[in-house]
Amino acid sequence: MSSIVVERHPETPPPRRRTRRQASTLPLVAPSVIALLLWMIVPLVMTIWFSFQRYNLLNPDAQKFIGIENFTFILGDSGFWISLGTTIVLVAAVLAITIGLGTLLAILFDQDFPGQGIARVLAISPFFVMPTVSALIWKNMLMHPVNGLFAQITRGLGLGAIDWFANFPLLAIIIIVSWEWLPFALLILLTAIQSLDHEQLEAARMDGANAIALFRFVMLPHLSRAIAVVAMIETIFFLTIFAEIFVTTGGGPGLATTNLAYYIFLKALLEFDVGGASAGGLIAVILANIVAIFLLRSVARNLDT
């Protein structure tokens, strides 16, 4: 007796059809996407165009194509390299201060103490002050050599007044920017440390770990991802610091506090050299993208581990 085996083939699923809701999404999103692309692409294209032109606002009729002369002039200008070095020092110093103090303050504010909520609000509040306003506060109320609070304190100690913006201009800018961005680092790191498993801390204490060992081997590895994210976000913003320098030192004395953003401002609006400023801006964009790629890879590496 023969048996016939009927082989069943799995039925192919019918092609998925877009629902009415999915089909109507594109017309709603398209205008905002197009506006965003135009907002990003048009200024970039104009900057690239002017970077290859000799264009000065004092003599706009003399505009002509000069190739890469603007780039060679910027790269051969000692002021550009001074501003690049100032930018690196400024970014590195503020990152070290905000991340270091932010980590210590996050551990402190994670403890229970009277007035904890009020202390957290006061610690985070400087982040909501506009950069121009905070620079004016530090310039006229804190670091003023005659009427500033710091001058009153140093005079009371018999040390005399210190003219911060004349004697220590870059240090003054670093202090101001650190005061502005320390609350941001504190907020991110405090949120990260609150997600730490307290049972892990208790187990480490039972094994005899002291406070330093707890911080080094338990808390710091847990905060590594948050620290990487803070470093990436802050670096992107620190590369474009402008208001604090403009309000307080004006890039001086000399070029002591001139970073890349302020150097481009001097080229564009004080020397009226639109072509040179555009070339400097493109160089700054390339450097910023290199830093951003490096930071994104480091953040992604921390997220994978």
UniProtKB/TrEMBL annotation:
Residues 1-11 have a biased composition (Basic and acidic residues). It comes from the Bacteria. The chain crosses the membrane at residues 26-52, 80-109, 121-138, 168-190, 226-247, 274-296. Keywords: Cell membrane, Membrane, Transmembrane, Transmembrane helix, Transport. Its main location: membrane. Residues 1-22 are annotated as: Disordered. It is a multi-pass membrane protein. One of its GO terms (biological process) is transmembrane transport. It is found in: Cell membrane. GO terms for cellular component: plasma membrane. Residues 84-295 form the ABC transmembrane type-1 domain. Pfam families: BPD_transp_1. Belongs to the binding-protein-dependent transport system permease family. This is Putative ABC transporter permease protein. It comes from Leptolyngbya boryana NIES-2135.
